């Protein structure tokens, strides 16, 4: 019943003029938070509205209120692999990779689910295409900065920015099962080229490249994870920390963890884990360590 209530409320807002053609409809996460429901329930409400033609999907924007004829769903000839990938990326960006389904992509694209398979073999293949497209959104200058360190800093920050834009990206593949797609290889090529000419053996050069990639991926994986946990628990970061109060008080009272208690107290009540700042903090000692490896080889 909740999904029907959410859909009815959005229709009411449209009827009353609070939402007009072209306006962005609240996202799945926004509706889940507003109505205190699961993401699946909010997604069902939006899917129903899309199927009824009340709202339509706009790549890189999300759902918007359906407007005049120019906003009509695409005909089969309009459906291309590129459009499917962009719609899928939009879903993953706004709702998370777990919310991605071929049916959901088809609904947002205004197409039949089976029509997608003329362009994409499976959901797994679609995710690979999405990752390739996402990694291709940023590249490197023809005249890069001098020195391996400046180039690795540039690569790390470029990859971080992509993960910031697409929080699902670090979840696509495991380190032991590398994703072999052209646009990711361009990032690898840039780093490996930056490490050339310093007397590094092949294995060390490879490991330094993987270490940098894994550092970015390891921090970025928490971008989407935090949002998922917030949606599942219904608690924002401040509320979640408040809920940990009794447990932290018990730890402090036990006397068994004096250093943890001292550091936690020193951070103060206003401390908030800023992943961007933490990424920058960690990048410096990582590159310092790499410098020692490179210095031993030259």
Automatic annotation (TrEMBL):
Residues 101-120 bind DNA. Residues 1-68 form the HTH gntR-type domain. The keyword Zinc-finger does not apply. Residues 78-138 form the HTH tetR-type domain. SMART domains: HTH_GNTR. InterPro entries: Homeodomain-like_sf, HTH-type_TetR-like_transc_reg, HTH_TetR, Repressor_TetR_C, Tet_transcr_reg_TetR-rel_C_sf, Tscrpt_reg_HTH_GntR, WH-like_DNA-bd_sf, WH_DNA-bd_sf. PROSITE patterns: HTH_GNTR, HTH_TETR_2. It comes from the Bacteria. Keywords: DNA-binding, Transcription, Transcription regulation. PANTHER family: HTH-TYPE TRANSCRIPTIONAL REGULATOR RUTR (PTHR30055), TRANSCRIPTIONAL REGULATORY PROTEIN (PTHR30055:SF151). This is TetR/AcrR family transcriptional regulator C-terminal domain-containing protein. It comes from Nonomuraea typhae. The lineage of its organism: Bacteria, Bacillati, Actinomycetota, Actinomycetes, Streptosporangiales.
